[in-house]
Amino acid sequence: MNLAVVKTLFSLSILSTILFSCNKSTSIGSDLQPQNLGVVFTEDITIETSTILIDPINTTNREVLLAGQYTDPHLGQIKASAFFAVQPFNKIFNFGTNPQFKSAVFSFPVSFSYGDTTQTQTINLHKLNNFIDPTKVYYNKDAIAYDPTPVASYTFKGSEATTFRKLDIPLPDSFRDNIITLVNNNALDSLEQSELDNFVKGFALVPQGGEAIWGFRVTGNIPAAIEIKYIDDNGSEQTYRISVRNAVSSNDVTNERYNSLRFNGVTANRISTPLVSLNQNYQTIAAAQTQNLTYVQESLGIRTKINFPDLGKLVEDQTVAINRADLIVVPIENTFSNFNKLPRRLELQILDGEGKIKEYYFRFPDPRLKITIQDTLLQRVQVEGTSPFGLASPLNVSLSGLSNTYNFEITSYIQYYLNKLNPRYKGSNKLSNDGLILASDLSNSGISRLVLGGYKHPKQPIRLRIFYTIVK
Predict the structure, then answer these.
(1) Does an H or E element contain 158, and which?
(2) Average pLDDT over residues 435-445
(3) What pLDDT is stored for residue 221 in this prediction?
(4) Are 111 and 213 in contact (CB under 8 A)?
(5) What residues are paired with 214 via a beta bridge?
(6) Is the pLDDT of residue 129 over 50?
(7) Where are the domains of the chain?
(8) Which region, left, alpha or beta, applies to residue 353 given φ > 0 means left and ψ of -120 to 50 means alpha?
(9) Which of 41, 208, 233, 361 is the most buried (most CB within 10 A)?
(10) CA distances from 332 to 56, 166, 287, 289, 437 (A)
């Protein structure tokens, strides 16, 4: 996304900055009402947390195809299937007069795995009965009907895919021969997209058994592709490819939207889990009802809602300057492992007065593709040093290897929120606090799951740690 364009469209003219300093020689107390004019520390700020469902989740044209299933003790049985179109990778190609074919596979480069990869599982490759609609946005609950008889099935152990960093699904000779015939029948030794579409509308990767979900990389120098290897007339090995289709050229763009060329279907059966009743968009379940735990799993739309109901007490009869404010998110021990990795990054999304995530619609011309692109941006807490009202610098936090926590510095956000609550503050640097959403970004397509403690969790509670100075 072009951040310069986003800044131009949405950055507000808020240029003033509140500068705060910390006098190291003064005492640091632990009460909200200090006894002297020093720097005060507190982490005794009430935090209300709940698990919230944001449903459905847009999975169109992600960089990773998801396929597999596993049973999560907190979220239930999770199943992921990938639906995708294909395109000629080698548009002009000549197999020669006497090719000696060695193999034909659908090769999927492995980006990551999630779950117990020591178990045996099967992934089936099916032909789609219908095309993926290029004008439609697809979500995690969507699916396209496919031929119940698979083109190919492959049973494997995860060690095979992780060792070679790819999963090669063998294709039958008859399927290979049909592709070769398509190429050879063209007088120009080429395979046009329309000819390929007449042969196959697309594919679905569908899991059968197993306890892991795989992420297969679509983009890159070696894409996910049908690979036909053979020895040519000169005795050299050659490879002909038909790749998973990408929206990277002007041919793959229509009207004002990138063509929908692939998507992931991700669903969960939450029966017998703490979240069995979570089934409506923006529905919440308080941490008190789930043993002081909440959850984040992006591809299912499961996130954690955060409120600070008592933060206004800091400015009931005084004005304060926030020196530093950190929201500390603690993953619960024994809920993650090498098989079940934590989300790579987390972010904080801002809610509006109706309890919905703030969104901004935008559109801008792309001169390279000669189209107009339209999309929506979510309002997120921004990186310190940038405008809290901005959109271009969202705060993305990785897991700290030292403390094993996600630490969000939200100094400006807390200060602007307190300014809004303080009747003595007459400036414009104010933010309403209608709540935050803790979410995972989609860098790994959102399969990783986080279990975090609520404010009253006995061992690993979420905390808001604040250093502040009383301003007279």
Answers:
(1) helix 158-164
(2) 80
(3) 73
(4) no
(5) 67, 113
(6) yes
(7) 3-55+280-471, 64-267
(8) alpha
(9) 41
(10) 27, 32, 14, 17, 19
Q: Which pLDDT tens digit goes with each residue over 311-362?
A: 999 998 889 999 999 999 999 999 999 899 999 899 999 999 999 999 987 7
Q: Is 255's pLDDT higher than 50?
A: no
The contacts of residue 16 (CB under 8 Å, 6+ apart) are: 427, 428, 429
Chain segment 225-236, per-residue pLDDT in tens: 999 999 999 999
Structure tokens at 360: 């901004």
The region that residue 5 occupies, defined by phi over 0 for left and psi between -120 and 50 for alpha, beta otherwise, is alpha
Contact 195, 186 (CB under 8 A): yes
d(CA 295, CA 304): 6
Please tell me the total number of residues recorded for the chain in this structure. Answer: 472
Task: Please provide residue 7's backbone torsions phi and psi, each rounded to the nearest 5 degrees.
Answer: -60, -45
Torsion region of 96: left, alpha or beta (phi above 0 gives left; psi -120 to 50 gives alpha): left
Is there a cis peptide before residue 56, judged by omega within 30 degrees of 0?
Answer: yes
Q: Identify whether the C-beta of residue 252 lies closer than 8 Å to the C-beta of residue 259.
A: yes
Chain position carrying tokens 């959850």: 295
Alpha carbons 33 and 231: distance in angstroms, whole number: 81
Reported as half-sphere exposure (CB side, CA atoms, 13 A), residue 82 has a value of: 28
Burial of 465: CB neighbours in 10 Å, binned 0-12, 13-18, 19+: middle
Lookup: tokens for 100: 């000696």
pLDDT at 189: 72
Q: Which residues 6+ apart lie within 8 Å of 181 measured at CB?
A: none
154's tokens: 């492959």
Distance CA 213, CA 313 (A): 46
Residue 287 is encoded by which pair of tokens? 């941490």
The end-to-end CA distance of the chain, in Å, is: 44
Higher-confidence residue of 187 and 316: namely: 316
Average pLDDT over the chain, rounded to whole?
86
Rounded to two decimals, the pTM is 0.85
Q: Which residue has the tokens 């020689």?
A: 25
Burial annotation 49-74 (CB, 10 A radius, 16+ → b, else e): bbbbbbbbbebbbbbbbbbbbbebeb
Question: For residue 184, what is the DSSP state?
Answer: H
Taking the C-alpha atoms of residue 26 and residue 36, their distance in angstroms, rounded to an integer, is: 9
- Among 122, 111, 32, 39, which residue's Cα sits nearest to residue 471? 39
The alpha-helical segments, DSSP class H, found in 232-331 are: none
Structure tokens at 290: 């789930």
